[in-house]
Automatic annotation (TrEMBL):
Keywords: DNA condensation, DNA-binding. It comes from the Bacteria. Transmembrane segments: none annotated. It comes from Treponema parvum. This is Integration host factor subunit beta. Belongs to the bacterial histone-like protein family.
Amino acid sequence: MSAKKITKYDLVESVYQNTKHEKRVVQDIVENLLIELKTVLKEGATIELRGFGTFEPRLRKGRTRARNPKTGEQLSVAPHYVAAFRSGQELKKALWDLPVTEDKKD
């Protein structure tokens, strides 16, 4: 398995090659999809993409004692939401048998 990082540009290029639609149209669709996903999550809703997974806003509890890793400064962190992803069954099955490489081990 390659350790390559895929960017939004790479996704647009791949969809463009697979569909032969105009690249600008594909780029607009991908951009609008990401904007819509962000908007829905900001409203507190859950996004379920069957066969792929679920995105949801998840509350992280605050801490009275936290540390800035760069400066070492002590600070407090208020409760806040983060975007969480749970993979769907099809995605889990597709990734289950990926070979483990040395750089990917825990």
